[in-house]
């Protein structure tokens, strides 16, 4: 805990010293490896301010923070929203606890935070920015730098704020699947050589073809035309639009009526905000995994290990149910359910592998031969780890791998409070057996529910040929840690897209009652459309890929050899909002200084088809057409394109294979 000046906060900090210490110890016993966490006690206003600032105390000056603060405050006042905690990805991590929260809430926050910190420290997507971020210092430096620009008398404050606004419209247009590479202020730009400069000057002179032939010979003019293709860049579509604009962007000078170089302060702000986008990207990419992970371990510590006292449990359970029961795409509930499903299926697979090696049992007769009640009874935790009885301490063998020898010695001396913290007596292996998922009341159907297809698949890929004479012999060697071990492996390498893609199955969808719904153009309402797991998965992919926003790439920085910027929308079946797209093009023009072009695919519904579909209570098929929108700084031009021009943008299915190639197994 960190010291504070307020007497009430000091009292709160003193009360929380023990829970903070014990939660950290328990988290490590459970196999978590978190960053160290500094906890701070703050009041209601400070908490709202921290939430507005994204979990940090110092950020660059901008109106967006005030807007977020006002929204957060109104949510608490009028909508009943409550801020329990905020924690940032840093080393050490910093967590902020609201002074007015009940003790049960504070304990829940502390256990939740320890799991978040473990995720920050061990998930490889966070290492794409830095494994040792020191983010608080970085963001503070960024704030000071931008504040210096604002205070500079040679720079208009309003101009700085407008420039930041332009960049923030593109803050998610980075390549979050690649490591962050900073761009230096004086890095040379390809546009130092003005591609198409001669051609542009000829266009500005508005010379007739006849005059051009008189001034320049035909061979030279033809050479200019032949070189058009060689001036196209980048070689491949570039997803990091902010980096591209940092390297090649300019600003339009209305007096000179041409594009000029960005000022040094503009280049620096561009790179500052690009760096911050990369820093925050992993948190957006792993929201389901991270919140589910924290909810899983919080629940285990608070409920299963009685970290919430008897007088606190009902309050904790009530608040937890509200968090998990909130509507919409809830990352807490979806993440928790997926982690529990992974744990159960991994434990089930391990048990089934052993049972299939029992004489007389095969995948064909598995359901008819196995007494699942008997199996679950055999899997129940040893009474030694299921409960802690002081009178049994002298009978415990010191060599038992499930027992913490040091704690056992202290317990026998009476110097450890096992009544409050029974988990202290156990090692990771002991705690895994103590909390084995398959024998929990809510999960007892998992083993018997396994399909014949899954049994056949497991049998086909079993390489261990050891056989057992009985079910009891097979279960005697069950490893209770396999579920948790597998969960930690997955925590290391996945993001939300790959997590949902790999582990969301038909069994999961059926068990947790997931379904898809669609807007019906024919009737103007929403309807449930499918419970098929592929449909559910595809729907989630659309919300998760590229943070749920359209994927736009730089296709050409010298479009038609006129220094225009060509952007392309990687269409995934969801059309752009054209008016919003135009607003964004206006912002990009301010960072490019020359005309900006966007190519996309739009969907159009025929009125006659809509009427027919309405009568038949069906959904019409839209017509997909190519669209090109051009903004020259003054006006928009919009035209329909031939399908050949946009065919490469059309998706036959949702593309959500987003693992870096070097991470693929």
From TrEMBL:
Stored InterPro entries: Spore_V_R, SpoVR-like_C, SpoVR_N
Domain (SpoVR protein-like N-terminal) ranges: 12-348, 483-547
Transmembrane segments: none
Domain SpoVR-like C-terminal: 550-602
Xref: Pfam families: SpoVR, SpoVR_C
Name this polypeptide is given: SpoVR family protein
Organism of provenance: Halovenus rubra
């Amino acid at each position: 805990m960190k010291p504070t000046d307020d007497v009430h906060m000091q009292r709160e900090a003193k009360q929380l010293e023990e829970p903070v210490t014990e939660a950290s110890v328990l988290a490590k016993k459970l196999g978590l490896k978190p960053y160290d966490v500094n906890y701070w006690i703050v009041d209601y206003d400070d908490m709202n301010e921290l939430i507005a600032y994204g979990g940090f105390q110092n950020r660059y000056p901008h109106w967006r923070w005030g807007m977020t603060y006002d929204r957060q405050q109104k949510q608490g006042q009028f909508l009943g929203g409550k801020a329990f905690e905020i924690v940032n990805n840093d080393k050490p991590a910093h967590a902020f606890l609201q002074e007015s929260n009940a003790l049960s809430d504070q304990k829940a926050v502390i256990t939740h935070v320890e799991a978040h910190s473990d995720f920050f420290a061990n998930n490889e997507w966070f290492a794409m920015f830095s494994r040792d971020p020191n983010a608080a210092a970085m963001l503070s430096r960024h704030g000071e730098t931008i504040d210096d620009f604002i205070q500079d008398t040679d720079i208009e404050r309003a101009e700085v704020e407008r420039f930041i606004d332009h960049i923030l419209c593109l803050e998610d247009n980075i390549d979050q699947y690649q490591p962050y590479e900073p761009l230096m202020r004086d890095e040379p730009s390809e546009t130092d050589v003005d591609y198409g400069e001669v051609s542009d000057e000829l266009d500005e002179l508005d010379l007739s073809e006849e005059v051009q032939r008189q001034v320049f010979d035909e061979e030279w003019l033809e050479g200019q035309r032949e070189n058009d293709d060689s001036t196209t860049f980048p070689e491949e579509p570039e997803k990091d639009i902010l980096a591209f604009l940092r390297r090649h962007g300019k600003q339009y000078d209305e007096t000179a009526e041409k594009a000029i170089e960005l000022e040094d302060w503009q280049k620096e702000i561009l790179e500052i905000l690009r760096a911050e986008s990369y820093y925050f990207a992993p948190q957006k990419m792993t929201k389901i995994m991270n919140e589910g992970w924290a909810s899983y371990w919080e629940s285990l510590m608070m409920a299963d290990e009685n970290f919430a006292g008897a007088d606190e449990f009902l309050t904790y359970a009530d608040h937890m149910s509200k968090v998990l029961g909130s509507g919409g795409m809830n990352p807490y509930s979806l993440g928790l359910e997926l982690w529990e499903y992974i744990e159960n299926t991994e434990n089930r697979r391990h048990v089934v592998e052993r049972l299939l090696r029992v004489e007389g049992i095969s995948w064909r007769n598995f359901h008819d031969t196995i007494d699942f009640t008997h199996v679950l009874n055999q899997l129940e935790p040893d009474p030694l780890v299921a409960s802690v009885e002081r009178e049994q301490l002298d009978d415990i063998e010191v060599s038992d791998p499930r027992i913490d020898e040091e704690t056992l010695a202290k317990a026998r001396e009476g110097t450890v409070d096992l009544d409050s913290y029974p988990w202290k007596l156990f090692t990771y292996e002991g705690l895994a057996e103590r909390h084995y998922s398959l024998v929990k009341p809510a999960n007892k159907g998992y083993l018997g529910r396994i399909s014949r297809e899954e049994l056949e698949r497991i049998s086909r890929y079993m390489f261990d040929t050891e056989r057992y004479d009985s079910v009891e012999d097979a279960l005697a060697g069950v490893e209770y840690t396999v579920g948790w071990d597998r969960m930690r492996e997955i925590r290391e390498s996945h993001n939300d897209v790959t997590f949902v893609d790999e582990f969301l199955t038909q069994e999961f969808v059926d068990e947790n009652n997931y379904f898809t719904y669609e807007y019906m153009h024919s009737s103007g309402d929403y309807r449930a459309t499918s419970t098929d797991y592929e449909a559910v998965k595809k729907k989630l992919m659309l919300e998760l890929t590229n943070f749920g926003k359209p994927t736009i790439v730089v296709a050409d920085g010298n479009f038609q050899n006129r220094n225009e910027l060509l952007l392309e929308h990687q269409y995934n079946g969801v059309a752009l909002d054209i008016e919003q797209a135009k607003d964004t093009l206006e912002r990009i023009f301010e960072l490019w200084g020359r005309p900006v072009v966007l190519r996309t695919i739009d969907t159009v519904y025929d009125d006659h088809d809509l009427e027919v579909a309405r009568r038949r209570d069906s959904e019409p098929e839209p017509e997909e057409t190519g669209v090109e929108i051009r903004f020259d700084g003054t006006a928009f031009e919009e035209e329909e394109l031939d399908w050949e021009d946009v065919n490469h943008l059309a998706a036959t299915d949702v593309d959500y294979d987003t693992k870096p190639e070097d991470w693929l197994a």
